[in-house]
Amino acid sequence: MAKAEKKPVGKKGKKRPNGLRERKREEFEREGAGSPARSWMIAAAIGFSLMAIVGFAMVRAGSQSEPERAAVTGSQDYTASGNVEMTDVKAKVAGGKVVFPLPVLKEKKLLYFKYQKDGVDVPLMAMLTPSGRVFTGSSMCEPCRSDRFHTEPDGTLTCNACGTKWDLETLKGISGGCPNYPPQEMKNEVRGGQIVLKEGDVRGWQPRPV
């Protein structure tokens, strides 16, 4: 019996080994991973992450450099009594600092004092806010040039001259002719029963243009 003649297998009918296909697939995936588009996406993601880390560090550093401004006493109820007028005190100026005692502020709640040195004359005030925080700053209502204030039972700091009212906690204007000119805050620190302001902040104060 004659043997069947084998037909030659053309290129189309030739099968590639499975191992070769796997190697080609792996090479393709490696090339895709290293493509310019994918590399750009990876670099961008890393860049955004670094920016976020740096931003967080800067915010944290800034918050740590802020002077202490926590409440120094319990909440203050200015609505339960009559008006609180300013009490005049003298501040000590030494070593680049302007200092006055915290116990006096706790007792009187609203203080007036002046910085006078080398021809510089700045009216200043200190106040316990309703939350018990120490506010220190300029003591002037610039439009009317009054440097005296008092608190009222309606929860406001009120100018003695023009009657403009500001919220005792936020100093946001409520009524009157000068609501956009509350006392300008100057940062302070509380150290061993003393309230301390930087002399440079005080000397650098200027009335705002009206």
Task: Describe the protein.
This protein is an alpha+beta fold. The chain folds into 2 domains: 18-65; 84-203, 3-layer Sandwich (Rieske Iron-sulfur Protein). The chain is built from 4 helices and 13 strands. Strands 1-8-9-10-11 form a 5-stranded antiparallel β-sheet, with no helix packed on it. A 4-stranded mixed β-sheet has the order 2-5-6-7, covered by helices on one side. Strand 8 (149-152) and strand 9 form a beta hairpin. The longest helix has 30 residues, at 36-65. The termini are far apart. The model is unreliable at 8-14 and 56-68 (pLDDT under 50).
Any key phrases for this structure?
210 residues; Rieske Iron-sulfur Protein; 2 domains; four-stranded mixed β-sheet; 13 strands; 28% helix; elongated
Q: Would you kindly provide a brief summary of this structure?
A:
Helices cover 28% and strands 27% of the residues.
Proportion in helices: 25-40%
Strand content: 25-35%
Shape: elongated
Question: H/E element string?
Answer: HHEEEEHEEEEEEEEEH
Strand order of the largest sheet: 1-8-9-10-11
What's the alpha carbon Rg, rounded to whole Å? 36 Å
Question: CATH homologous superfamily of the largest domain, by name?
Answer: Rieske [2Fe-2S] iron-sulphur domain
**Which architecture of the largest domain does the CATH hierarchy give at level 2?**
3-layer Sandwich
The residue ranges in which pLDDT falls below 50 over 5 or more consecutive positions are 8-14, 56-68
Instruction: Give the N-terminus to C-terminus distance in angstroms.
Output: 121 Å
The average pLDDT value, as a whole number, equals: 82
The CATH class name of the largest domain reads Mainly Beta
CATH topological fold name of the largest domain? Rieske Iron-sulfur Protein
The tally of strands reads 13
Structural class designation: alpha+beta
Main beta-sheet annotation:
5 strands, antiparallel
